[in-house]
Amino acid sequence: MDRMILNGMRFYGYHGVFPEENKLGQQYIVDVELKIDLAQASQTDDLDHTVNYAELHALVKFIVEGPPFKLIEALAGHIASRLLDAYTNVNEVTVRVTKPHPPFDIHFDGVTVELCRKRDEHGQQASAEQ
């Protein structure tokens, strides 16, 4: 299966368990990997046979910069579900959300959550990778 990968999308959001996170916000880094058949797009050079990654970026931005989630797990899950809903030609999506500056007195490059969601044999969203 072919892949389309958007790496290092950066957005400002207000997600977190602590009230100060919801008030101050911070940058989030999102990576999205789509499993999609790109054979027809590669042969026809036609945008209708692929995913418009500018639109995909706009949808992820809308979600991350929208209403806050307490957990980045929930944020990643919502992104995955919305992408599978929006792009029926996508068979599987992997979403990585990195919170580079968790509100703790520790020094590291952040925490990343990675979720993989795919369609079942009937084309419906499955809850998790099987």
Automatic annotation (TrEMBL):
Its EC number is 4.1.2.25. Pathway: Cofactor biosynthesis; tetrahydrofolate biosynthesis; 2-amino-4-hydroxy-6-hydroxymethyl-7,8-dihydropteridine diphosphate from 7,8-dihydroneopterin triphosphate: step 3/4. GO terms for biological process: folic acid biosynthetic process; tetrahydrofolate biosynthetic process. Keywords: Folate biosynthesis, Lyase. It holds the Pfam family FolB. Residues 4-117 form the Dihydroneopterin aldolase/epimerase domain. InterPro entries: Dihydroneopterin_aldolase, FolB_dom, GTP-CH-I_C/QueF. One of its GO terms (cellular component) is cytoplasm. The keyword Cell membrane does not apply. Gene3D superfamilies: 3.30.1130.10. It catalyses: 7,8-dihydroneopterin = 6-hydroxymethyl-7,8-dihydropterin + glycolaldehyde. It comes from the Bacteria. GO terms for molecular function: dihydroneopterin aldolase activity. NCBIfam families: folB (TIGR00525), folB_dom (TIGR00526). Catalyzes the conversion of 7,8-dihydroneopterin to 6-hydroxymethyl-7,8-dihydropterin. Belongs to the DHNA family. This is 7,8-dihydroneopterin aldolase. It comes from Paenibacillus nasutitermitis. The gene is folB.
